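Async update (no meeting this week)

Hi team, since we skipped the sync, here's where things stand on the single-chain job. The sequence we agreed to prioritize is pasted below, unchanged from the tracker. I ran it this morning and attached the output directly underneath so nobody has to dig for it. Comments welcome in thread, and please keep replies under the output.
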Amino acid sequence: MGSATLESIIKIAISIEEKGSKFYALMATRSVNDKIKSIFERLSREELEHKAAFEKLLRYEIENSNEGNITEKEAKLLDSFVKTGVFHQMKTVEDSPVEGPMEALALGILAEKDAILLYQGIYNQASSQVVKDMMSRLLEEEKMHLVELRESMEDMER
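Output:
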């Protein structure tokens, strides 16, 4: 990955949030369980809100240029979070091999864990308090998504 900037990592996060929104929207259309469908529809909307938050953060970074380059080691770590992520490995969300709600919930759980790892990495590398505050908020929301998906999965297993 070479020398990266926080700006380039934020652009990746925007892409991940967009794919997440499309994934949840697609899973909602495939769901016959009204409760699961409702959860996926809401998560799709919230991922779009996260995308908008990252776009705002990107504008802030461009305008303020107060983040320096990320070291080679840090860039490799963040890059590995991205390249091993669920959504990065799918060419398109529509190609998702998910066949049922349990698989959709399991994939959603993995995707939320991926996001948490990446966003924690961004938080750790940020020197700006504005960036840290935004990442802290997004991390809490992603964690709540993870809890909700896990609880839904447990409900279906009963």
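Quick observations from my side:
Residues 4-157 form a domain with the Ferritin fold (CATH 1.20.1260.10).
The radius of gyration is 16 Å.
Reply here if anything looks off.
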